[in-house]
Write a structure and sequence with these properties.
This protein is mainly alpha-helical. Helix content is about 55%, strand content about 5%. It has a domain at about 215-300: Tyrosyl-Transfer RNA Synthetase. The protein is globular, with a radius of gyration of 21 Å. Bound molecules: adenosine monophosphate and tryptophan.
Length: about 350
């Protein structure tokens, strides 16, 4: 990450990323996003992390659940190691500049671009006529999230790469149409061994909070016993573990568990295989379960503690929103000027 942040563009490096408060957090969110946010924060680059509640409501959210999930996500960020003083931590709807710039980007982005988005196709499914207009426009709001801060780097999991590429297209078209060099062309940062954590029940599917099977994922709120049980029951194949990466070819479940082990222990897949190559899953799974409990149980305990004081979480979010607006407001104002809006 630090290397990536040092390269690219004339803009000051600034990191932005977001997670939807649309239910529980999974090991996929933790390894693919949150843990990497913490690593980035500790490189000293200005980092801005958002709970994207306006993205969450592109599909139905029960209001009470949304409120709870937003606070829980904030608790999850902090319990994972984000420091709300070092990073800016806030909720999207409390910074209206996102939606305001999002509207302008709705007018820059083309229908055809949106129609190509795989997340749109997956989520809208066969009944796309009945999907919300917000779900279709979702990537334009995501572009606004990033560009309203002139962010240059966007750490995300593999599934979000296409959306960051669309953000680049929007920034490029805006700069071109208005003959300015105003928005940076942000880079997706997708690195590490866990940018795509797979389901524990099916190595071809992404681990997701929306999977109907709870056994398919590890939730950050799972207790130690549940974590250990889910790992013990994870789908595997009958072979022993290989000693090199080539040996994981065509073995998606084995690859997934090894990747998780490498990411949690902060080593490479090669190093893990050197250690566990030749072992049976019956020997490897307890090692993985111990490691997962060791790393995740403290996060779940700390989340539960933070969730006891909703008022404190709301205070952190309000302060974060204030700091975020200090950056976003002048960038939006300048955008309005470029576009020709009177009063800006
Ligand atoms: P979401 O929960 O869909 O808002 O995703 C928030 C962040 O977590 C995004 O950066 C995703 O790419 C990342 N993420 C979600 N699920 C996974 C997964 N199974 N593996 C890796 N990253 C993930
Ligand atoms: N679309 C992202 C997801 O579903 C969440 C998101 C919204 C995001 N805005 C963002 C991620 C801006 C990175 C940057 O996971």
């Amino acid at each position: 990450m630090s290397e990536a942040v040092q390269t690219s563009s004339a803009f000051t490096p600034r990191v932005f990323s977001g997670i939807q408060p649309s239910g529980g957090l999974t090991l996929g969110n933790y390894l693919g996003a949150m843990k990497r946010f913490v690593d980035t924060q500790n490189t000293g680059v200005q980092s801005i992390y958002c709970m994207v509640d306006q993205h969450a409501i592109t599909v139905w959210q029960d209001p009470e659940n949304l409120r709870r999930a937003t606070r829980e996500l904030c608790a999850g960020y902090i319990a994972s190691g984000l420091d709300p003083e070092k990073s800016i931590l806030f909720n999207q709807s409390q910074v209206p500049e996102h939606a305001q710039l999002g509207w302008i980007f709705n007018c820059v982005a083309r229908m055809g671009w949106m129609q190509r988005m795989t997340q749109w196709k997956d989520k809208a499914g066969k009944n796309s006529q009945n999907a919300s207009l917000g779900l279709f426009a979702y990537p334009a709001l995501m572009a606004a999230d990033i560009l309203v801060y002139h962010a240059t780097h966007v750490p995300v999991g593999e599934d979000q790469k296409q959306h960051v590429e669309l953000t680049r297209d929007i920034a490029t078209k805006f700069n071109h149409d208005y003959k300015v060099d105003f928005f940076p062309i942000p880079e997706p940062v997708i690195e590490g061994t866990a940018t795509r954590v797979m389901s524990l029940r099916d190595g071809s599917k992404k681990m997701s909070k929306s999977d109907p099977s709870d056994a398919s994922r590890i939730n950050l709120t799972d207790d130690a016993d549940t974590i250990a049980k889910k790992i013990r029951k994870a789908k595997t194949d009958p072979e022993a573990l290989p000693s090199d990466v080539e040996g994981l070819e065509g073995r998606s479940e084995a690859r997934n568990l090894v990747n998780i082990y490498a990411a949690l222990s902060e080593t490479s897949v090669d190093a893990v295989l050197a250690e566990i190559g030749g072992k049976q899953f019956s020997e490897f799974k307890p090692l993985l379960a111990d490691l997962a409990v060791d790393k995740l149980a403290p996060i779940s305990t700390e989340m539960a503690r933070l969730m006891e004081d909703a008022a404190e979480i709301d205070k952190i979010l309000a302060r974060g929103a204030e700091r975020a607006r200090e950056i976003a407001a002048p960038i939006l104002k300048e955008t309005y000027k470029i576009v020709g809006m009177v009063g800006a």
